[in-house]
Amino acid sequence: MRAVVVGGGIGGLASAVALTRNGWQVEVLERARAFGEVGAGLAVLPNALRALDALGLGEAIRERASSEMPAGIRAVSGRWLSRADHGELRRRYGQWAMVHRADLLEILRAAVPADALRPGVEVREVRRDGTVLHSGGTSTGDLVVGADGIRSVTRRSVWGEEPAPRYAGYSTWRAIAANVPVRESVETWGRGERFGYSPLPDGRTYFYAVVNAPEGDEGGADELRRRFAHWHDPIPALVNAVAGTALLRHDIYELPNLGSYVAGKVALVGDAAHAMTPNLGQGACQALEDAVVLAAADGLAEYDRLRRPRTQMVVRRSRRLGVIAHWTAPALVGARNTVMRMLPRSGFSRSMAPLLDWAP
Ligand SMILES: Cc1cc2nc3c(=O)[nH]c(=O)nc-3n(C[C@H](O)[C@H](O)[C@H](O)COP(=O)(O)OP(=O)(O)OC[C@H]3O[C@@H](n4cnc5c(N)ncnc54)[C@H](O)[C@@H]3O)c2cc1C
């Protein structure tokens, strides 16, 4: 059986690994000239580590990840609003990992047979009968996996002109700092602004900022420093470390729900199926789950039945969290912070169950 995978990001490469291990002959079409990306950090939560274990890649990830660090949410002053009880989280859900995105992609890529990878091939059209038209000619498969991200050509050609991705109202910066080591994974909530940082295994620090902003705003390092240089330590040092580093800036979008992730011989995975806001750190995690389930499912209808309700639940929860995290009215923000300080630690752990207790 032949599968054509459109897109060689996390969802596409993971699908290629999973399908290969289930006996499929796979071809991965990726428009970039090389597989991999500059990227930044990525949280691989316990549900996704279980998916990677199912692919036989969990250990390789753990070796290149940092984990077991204290985690939680702070106020701009540095005061804790919510602290994760990581012993309890570990007992309930297992380990989670912070990795460099490029490391995850490299581990996935190395697990796909080299002759299956076709970089520099841009897909132009996908048909329900399994035909894929691209810059290198035509490919056909018994299965086509649309893993081509939020502006998916697969989704557009098979599902028609869906409403465009919806701007969430906030935009992010991401970077990796070399000389500002941290020991905890923290997100700090202000008014319409958030800042997060986490240790990477090699002593570097992944950090990101999320701000309410008009779509297309292009502010760079100066804007980042203006907004965050007075927040609690180590945030000033992190925003001052961006000179000379790659600073990524992306507006955040999500896709409207689809009524099905499958049509004819075509299935969507990852952002092409359910691009979500990054507030729960679950976009790539869900793509990894998709890949494992797709390869094991008894037909595409079963894949859709198993994946659509779950991923659309995560999209909803992530959107809701973003609304609360980006409140700007002082009274609302004050009330939010008070409630967060009062909630028991065990409540946080329990509330994560629908996301983290997934198993293949
Ligand atoms: C700021 C931010 C932070 C995030 N943090 C996290 C996190 O901590 N944890 C987490 O789990 N998720 C996180 N995510 C979400 C995560 O990045 C995405 O969900 C994930 O990368 C989706 O993977 P994908 O393979 O589905 O799509 P993509 O990564 O978009 O990959 C699509 C691939 O398809 C290729 N492609 C596109 N069109 C074509 C075409 N026509 N022909 C051939 N190739 C094509 C592209 O070049 C690309 O390589 C975050 C997202 C953002 C924006």
UniProtKB/TrEMBL annotation:
* SUPFAM superfamilies assigned to the protein according to its UniProt record, in alphabetical order: FAD/NAD(P)-binding domain (SSF51905)
Q: List residues traversing the bilayer.
A: none
Supply the name of the protein: 2-polyprenyl-6-methoxyphenol hydroxylase
Q: Does the keyword Oxidoreductase apply?
A: yes
Instruction: Please state every residue range assigned to the domain named FAD-binding.
Output: 3-296
User: Which keywords fit this entry according to its UniProt record?
Assistant: Monooxygenase, Oxidoreductase
Database matches in Pfam families? FAD_binding_3 (PF01494)
Native organism is: Allokutzneria albata (Kibdelosporangium albatum)
The answer, when asked if Oxidoreductase is one of the entry's keywords, is yes
Any one Gene Ontology MF annotation carried by this entry is: FAD binding
